[in-house]
Write a structure and sequence with these properties.
Layout (H helix, E strand, L loop, with lengths): L1 E2 L2 E3 L20 E5 L3 H12 L3 E5 L5 H9 L3 E4 L13 E4 L4 H14 L3 E3 L12 E5 L2 E5 L6 H14 L4 H16 L5 H17 L7 H13 L1 H5 L2 E6 L10 H8 L3 E4 L5 H4 L7 E4 L8 E2 L1 H13 L3 E6 L9 H10 L4 E4 L4 H9 L11 E6 L13 H4 L4 E6 L5 H10 L7 E6 L7 E6 L3 H4 L9 E5 L7
Parallel strand pairs: 1-13, 3-4, 3-6, 4-5, 6-7, 10-14, 10-15, 11-12, 11-14, 16-17
Antiparallel strand pairs: 2-12, 8-9, 17-20, 18-19, 18-20
Helix pairs in contact: 1-2, 6-7, 11-12
């Protein structure tokens, strides 16, 4: 059975607890109410934006005094804030212990139309202050809507490890170079190509800052590549076994820059979400024993989209080069004159091993690892299988797409002399929340899932390296 490629719309934005907004405050007045450590942090943060910061506190703490002495845009006022102080202010922040003063500050700010944030007082605040990754002008904010600042800080810490300090220099270069690139005479597609090349260079040369020579080289490459860009490019990305956290960083970046994403049925929506919202998403899924898009149509669609100048990502489950018919798509693109970049993914066999907590190789029991597919296009085992090699108990065998042919697989392996008690596992939807593991032997595993409808994808692992689990 065949079906046509199915273009789908991007899902609507999920509900947002708060709208992240980056506020330009340079040269504007920001009011701070409070003199403790919490207020000092707000003063330092506001002053770092270039705002003129007015602090109202009868007894500012030592930290706050140090900040005021170090920054010439911070003024201390040893009095209570008053309604007139809010006139013309861009923003007000506070860390206030006194309930009555907090309520008055809220009322005065609202009367003046000034947005207000008070620490630990969400009912009196118009916005929350998130945790910040500062590589200015690259700034990343993390917010829990005020629910758990500690959790937001922990998330920020994780992000900090992913954002090198050198990215600050690259972001500053982008800020300076953008008007120069706009004035360079490049058309829209070539300018976009420049920034893609810029981004790839930043991630490739992660240990250094950009140089003026880089800009000249990138402009030249963008001009020279304008024709190639107009013809499009294709990147084949392995989506991994299903857990979006197992998608590689390189695959994530490819999706973020795609104009069109051609994806398989087994790719979850959580991975498609990494594509930019403007990207066209086309389902070209092939499923065993179900209506599928013909491989020839998929290959032709890839070529046609590349000819239209699109940046195409072909998103395949697992690793694209393992039982994914990648060679046919690669050949079609090369025959049409297009190169293709391939981004590997985590294959289902590895996810299956992780699911049962077992190494697939062992010095003592499994020095060889073999991958097989359990059916051909007609749903049967390939005629040229070396059943003797598959029954070799010194190997671990990973069987892809083995849900329907498991009984025949078991029968043939036992017939070839494999021990009845050879460990065997069936793993359904490895790495996903719906993951299911069935433990058995090569003799009894088929009976344990007999009569069940296995939704898949299904991985069967066989071998003595799995013993003792």
């Amino acid at each position: 059975m065949t079906r046509k490629p199915d273009e789908i719309s991007a899902d609507l934005m999920q509900p947002l607890a708060t709208l992240p907004v980056f506020y330009a405050l340079a040269g504007r007045r920001v009011l701070i109410v409070g003199g403790g450590e919490a207020a000092a942090w707000k003063v330092d943060l506001a002053a770092a934006t270039g705002a003129q910061v007015d602090v109202f506190a009868h007894a500012p703490c030592d930290k706050l005094r140090e900040i005021a002495q170090a920054r010439d845009n911070v003024s201390l006022h040893a009095r209570d804030i008053a309604p007139k102080d809010f006139i013309g202010a861009a923003m007000a922040l506070g860390a206030i212990e006194d309930d009555a003063l907090a309520q008055k500050t809220h009322e005065w700010a609202h009367a003046a139309g000034v947005p207000l944030n008070l620490t630990d007082r969400p009912a009196l605040s118009d916005f929350t202050m998130g945790a910040i990754v500062n590589r200015s002008p690259l700034v990343i904010g993390v917010s829990t809507g005020g629910a758990s600042p500690v959790f937001a800080q922990a998330v920020r810490g994780r992000i900090e490890t992913l954002v090198p300090a050198t990215f600050q220099a690259w972001a500053r270069a982008a800020q300076v170079w953008r008007p120069l690139v706009r004035a360079s005479g490049l058309d829209f597609l070539a300018r976009r190509d420049f920034w893609r090349r810029f981004t790839r260079l930043a991630f490739r040369e992660i240990e250094r800052a950009p140089q003026v020579e880089d800009r000249a080289a990138l402009l030249e490459e963008a001009r020279a590549g304008a024709e190639a860009t107009a013809r499009g490019r294709v990147t084949m990305v392995g989506a991994g076994p299903g857990d979006p956290e197992l998608l590689t960083l390189k695959g994530m970046r490819a999706l973020a820059g795609a104009d069109v994403v051609l994806f398989d049925d087994l790719v979850p929506a959580s991975i498609l979400d990494f594509a930019r919202r403007e990207a066209t998403r086309i389902n070209v899924g092939k499923r065993g024993y179900a209506p599928s898009v013909r491989q020839e149509e998929i290959s032709a669609l890839l070529v046609n989209l590349a000819r239209e100048g699109k940046n195409v990502v072909r998103l395949k489950g697992g690793d694209p080069l393992i039982f994914g018919r990648a060679n046919e798509e690669i050949a079609a693109l090369r025959q049409a004159g297009f190169s293709i970049e391939i981004v590997p993914g985590v294959t289902a066999a590895c996810a299956g091993g992780a699911a049962i907590g077992a190494s697939l190789t062992s010095r003592e029991t499994a020095r060889r690892l073999q991958f097989i597919t359990a059916h051909t296009k007609d749903g049967e085992f390939p005629e040229d299988f070396d059943w003797g090699a598959l029954a070799d108990e010194r190997a671990t065998t990973a069987v892809y797409m083995g849900n329907r042919t498991l009984p025949e697989l078991s029968r043939r392996l036992l017939q070839e002399g494999m021990s009845h008690d050879t460990p065997a596992f069936l793993i359904e939807r490895a790495s996903t929340p719906q993951e299911r593991v069935v433990k058995g032997t090569i003799a009894d595993l088929p009976g344990k899932v007999a009569g069940e409808t296995l939704v898949g994808p299904v991985m069967v692992l066989i071998g003595w390296a799995l013993a003792g689990l």
